[in-house]
Amino acid sequence: MTTTLSSRHPGVLATSPAVEVSLAEPRGRLSLRARGDLTPFARVLGFALPERIGQRAEEHDIRAIRLGPDEWTLNTPMAAVQRLLEAFAAIYPDHPHSLVDISGREVSLVIEGAQASDLLSIGCARDVEAIPAGEGRRTMFDGTTVVLWKDAADSYRLDIWNSFAPHVLDLLKTGCAELAAEARQA
Amino acid sequence: MSQFRVAGRGRINSGRRVRFTFDGKEYSGLEGDTIASALLANGVHLVGRSFKYHRPRGILSAGSEEPNAIVGTSRGAGRYEPNTRATVQEIWKGLTVTSQNKYPSLKFDIGAVNDAAYMLFSAGFYYKTFMWPKAFWHKVYEPFIRAAAGMGVSPSEPDPDTYASRYLHCDLLVVGSGPAGLAAARVGAEAGLRVVLVDENAEAGGTLLSEPQAQINGQQAWDWLAAELAGLKAKGVRIMTRTTAIGYYHQNMVGLCEKLTDHLDVLPKDMPRERLWRVRAKRVVLAQGALEKPLVFHGNDRPGVMLAGAAQTYLNRYGVKAGHRPVVLTSHDSAWYAAFDLEDAGAKVAAIADTRPAVRGDLIAEAGKRGIPVLLSHTATTTSGRLRISSITLAVVKDGKTGPETRYACDCLLMSGGWTPSLHLFSHTQGKLAWDENQNTFLPGFTQENCGIAGAGRGLWGIEAALADGLERGREAAAALGRSVDAAPVRVENDRTGTGVSHTELPTRRDAGKNKSFVDFQNDVTAKDLRLAVKEGMRSIEHVKRYTTNGMATDQGKLSNINGLNIAAEALGKEAPKVGLTTFRPPYTPTTFGTFCGYHRGSHFEVTRKTNIDSWAEENGAVFEPVGQWRRAWYFPKAGEDMDAAVLRECRATRAGVGIFDASTLGKIEVVGPDAAEFMNRMYTNPWTKLMPGRCRYGLLLGEDGHIRDDGVIGRMAQDRFHVTTTTGGAARVLNMMEDYLQTEWPDLQVWLTSTTEQWSTIALNGPDAAKLLAPLVEGVTLTEEAFPHMSCVECTVAGMPARLFRVSFTGEIGFEVNVPAYLGRALWDVLWEVGQPLGITAYGTETMHVLRAEKGYIIVGQDTDGTVTPGDAGLSWAVGTKKRDFVGMRGMARPDLVAPGRKQLVGLLTEDRSRLEEGAQIVFDPNQPIPMTMAGHVTSSYHSDAVGRPIALALVAGGHERMGETVYIPMPDRTIAAQITSTVFVDPENARLKI
């Protein structure tokens, strides 16, 4: 694994008969930290921030996931980042918070197909099938911290820091080959 | 069909013929055979030599508990496996099997002299024999013990197979697919639970595979089994065969080892050999059954001596007769059925000898019907036959006295000493065992885990009892998960229920002191050894075990532990539970290292983090070094250059023109919030309140103990926003430490921390031409001394890319660090590289970075500090805010030890002979003092310095700051080097070179 993923074009990276791993389009990512009254942030975003850890909310292609008691990640179109930074800065004096651009920090891998959960089970200790579709979790995959977005029963996204992504992808590729071998065997 | 394969018997008779070799000789078996069943079908009982006495040994069991039939298997280069159990490994076309512990051949073995000299090899013989003379230890005893120790031959080639692992979550995990396990799984499935059923055998069914005579709900056992398995699958039960539950860990985490390819003649592409499953089950039912106990008597280890239940399995499952003329020796009803089955299959049973004075009338009648002689109240006193049993000597026991002996010719002996519940996994849960007086064995008692034990595993006997118990345990599991389900009882006819008694060593009229009555077949431990251990003072079973090695072989005493305990207890005159049972530990059966390694080998062994600029380094021939999890470019050798030459060129070019360095791995933390400055004041030694936005400061981080933990340059990007950098290796640790304080000590502070290490690619430009190179590319700030002085920071664009630009220097030259979003790192590097060509831009690696910083006396935390160095020791007192009220480590710094004179302090060293010191070398003040000398410190950093024109070093020396100009000595193996203590700053102490 020599190349970093953020320099690669989005597209399919590994396949198996019943699952596919691909690199997602680059997205804007903002880490929001705040406490107390959250309504000012809802006004800026146009929707309320999710209340329970692991819950998500989405409006106009801006997705928010709650990762901690005072922590959310906003996943946005690249073009929206600057606008959001400015809009949040405008309310900062009255509603102190931290908003940090982490668009460059991570890449996202999309794992889709009937065996998506099986593929994740080679590196994720969580019961991913038990996570409701439309939610997400910060968890570990093969020793690496990832944010797992479950979009549907057979569709997941993994947010991974740049330098860990090749390691994660390497295992996912091995897993795809293994699932393919199993399919041939069956 | 061989003369031992019985037509119409077994489950594999329709299988393909499979050829394999054993010790070079070709044999044929049927698909589905184990090595053991195939060899037995060929009339082969002799499969190995024992470990200590090299006694000929045969096949004792038909399962994973086998202690004797341990062989080497191979499928070609790198795929040799020692210590494979012949009773488990299935045969496939081309399998190569070799026997172990033999020289020169299995039938004639020189090591068997150990057997004749057995008196020397009694319990504890290692401890006694190899004591004197002391001088013999290294040259004679140790090599001898090493040569004799260990079973089989370790593989010497890399393993070409791959191994896998997965996590699995379920409501109910059932271990063992015999009647009890099947019943539990059925109830679970009917209750709508996610059920996983695992079995170590190639086929599910357990006992049912060996008892085709049973009628279950009116169906023949195998028909019922097939329908039941199909029904379970249809209900979504995941049935995993060739899958051993190897360990039961906390909170119902059960480890499984699934063997995927060891039974195949052609290895499928990309298919791992084995897979480790980590199962998290809400409930577990252990239905592992019971293991048959051998009887302990003189000569009970000859090839041809087999457990009666095993013989029944070989006959009914594999269609193989263990012999034509067996004798059955038993203390349990179950072995009688083995005799009946074999007789019915055409063998001529020479006798059934039972140790009990009275046996159930129906058994006697069945024996009579078949014309089998029955001997009650009998014991066995010896056996004969060199490579295979040829006779057994039996005698009647009356009023505790052994009567006259009679010899019975036989070609195999089927024995049964009763059954021991398989308690291994239950024992892994730290479960308490309960002694059962009637059965003379331990049964499972209380466990903390959400776990039930079903069937023979808790001392029940018979298929109907096991099925009923399995249903009950399944119902229990379902109820615990809030489900209720009705399961109709299952009716079994032709069920073979039975009871038995337990023995220690069987009575004999011979000298028991000379008996070789084996308890642990694999480690060659006899009843006499156990009694000797007790006689020599061992009281606890744990001591007896270690002294005799009983139960310490690869089978973990599956057959020997309970016999060993009963014999030791008898010798001690105590009840067995007072002597105790040794602890079982995972794994249940021997498991390959590959299974535990899983995917983590070769390039995937551990995460290797790479920056976005790493690809350039690779393309340009960098040599890399690991720094924490990162791999970093160490130096960039040109053709013909070694490391020293490359580093010298890189240093010289940077000091003369401009060098470019990938500093992306530096840890970065964004500290944001109204209390950001207050937080920084509390964390770092330095004052931050007055630092203006747009300015940077060197920050020093201590632990509560006052010792240096980390450092880095910190820029104030805005009033409420700091861009903190940490050391490469310290990034995660520092963030955790900060979060820890924030969450536990200062939750009132309005400040938040975000890791931005990977948000940015960081490129350092250093050298007199650095500003010249960068200035034309920068928009938003002018790179002059006035507009952007040393220790400034700004958000701007560089080559059109959004950037955070820092003017900092870790080299003593004019220096910049350009941060751009990580994905732009390589693009920016390429631009700078191209624009820098006219200036002779030179890429440098971590080694040059180390040299250049050492020339300026800049420390590297973790190299020049070792966790006991204070700011004062490191000459960094200037970085400690003296007017601050508090910061982490402030009170620690005032501890008496930390202000005492004579502490090791960081100084520079110049050697008198201009040689380069070794990093880590110890320093003394007086080279002529007697050995052991008093160490005064050690060398922390040492390099050849082009700028100074000689090697330089940094060192921690006791009271070093007061010893400027003094000479210290560095004793090396070949000579002692003298060096002068100097300042740590070797180049440009006035910092004149920092100015644009």
Automatic annotation (TrEMBL), chain A:
<dbReference type="InterPro" id="IPR007375">
    <property type="entry name" value="SoxG"/>
</dbReference>
<protein>
    <submittedName>
        <fullName>Sarcosine oxidase subunit gamma</fullName>
    </submittedName>
</protein>
<dbReference type="InterPro" id="IPR027266">
    <property type="entry name" value="TrmE/GcvT-like"/>
</dbReference>
<dbReference type="Pfam" id="PF04268">
    <property type="entry name" value="SoxG"/>
</dbReference>
UniProtKB/TrEMBL annotation, chain B:
<dbReference type="Pfam" id="PF08669">
    <property type="entry name" value="GCV_T_C"/>
</dbReference>
<dbReference type="InterPro" id="IPR041854">
    <property type="entry name" value="BFD-like_2Fe2S-bd_dom_sf"/>
</dbReference>
<comment type="similarity">
    <text>Belongs to the GcvT family.</text>
</comment>
<feature type="domain" description="FAD/NAD(P)-binding">
    <location>
        <begin position="171"/>
        <end position="439"/>
    </location>
</feature>
<dbReference type="InterPro" id="IPR006277">
    <property type="entry name" value="Sarcosine_oxidase_asu"/>
</dbReference>
<feature type="domain" description="Aminomethyltransferase C-terminal">
    <location>
        <begin position="904"/>
        <end position="988"/>
    </location>
</feature>
<keyword id="KW-0560">Oxidoreductase</keyword>
<dbReference type="InterPro" id="IPR042204">
    <property type="entry name" value="2Fe-2S-bd_N"/>
</dbReference>
<feature type="domain" description="SoxA A3">
    <location>
        <begin position="514"/>
        <end position="596"/>
    </location>
</feature>
<dbReference type="InterPro" id="IPR029043">
    <property type="entry name" value="GcvT/YgfZ_C"/>
</dbReference>
<dbReference type="Pfam" id="PF07992">
    <property type="entry name" value="Pyr_redox_2"/>
</dbReference>
<dbReference type="InterPro" id="IPR041117">
    <property type="entry name" value="SoxA_A3"/>
</dbReference>
<dbReference type="Pfam" id="PF01571">
    <property type="entry name" value="GCV_T"/>
</dbReference>
<dbReference type="InterPro" id="IPR006222">
    <property type="entry name" value="GCVT_N"/>
</dbReference>
<dbReference type="InterPro" id="IPR013977">
    <property type="entry name" value="GcvT_C"/>
</dbReference>
<dbReference type="InterPro" id="IPR036188">
    <property type="entry name" value="FAD/NAD-bd_sf"/>
</dbReference>
<dbReference type="InterPro" id="IPR027266">
    <property type="entry name" value="TrmE/GcvT-like"/>
</dbReference>
<feature type="domain" description="GCVT N-terminal">
    <location>
        <begin position="615"/>
        <end position="884"/>
    </location>
</feature>
<dbReference type="Pfam" id="PF17806">
    <property type="entry name" value="SO_alpha_A3"/>
</dbReference>
<protein>
    <submittedName>
        <fullName>Sarcosine oxidase subunit alpha</fullName>
    </submittedName>
</protein>
<dbReference type="InterPro" id="IPR023753">
    <property type="entry name" value="FAD/NAD-binding_dom"/>
</dbReference>
<dbReference type="Pfam" id="PF13510">
    <property type="entry name" value="Fer2_4"/>
</dbReference>
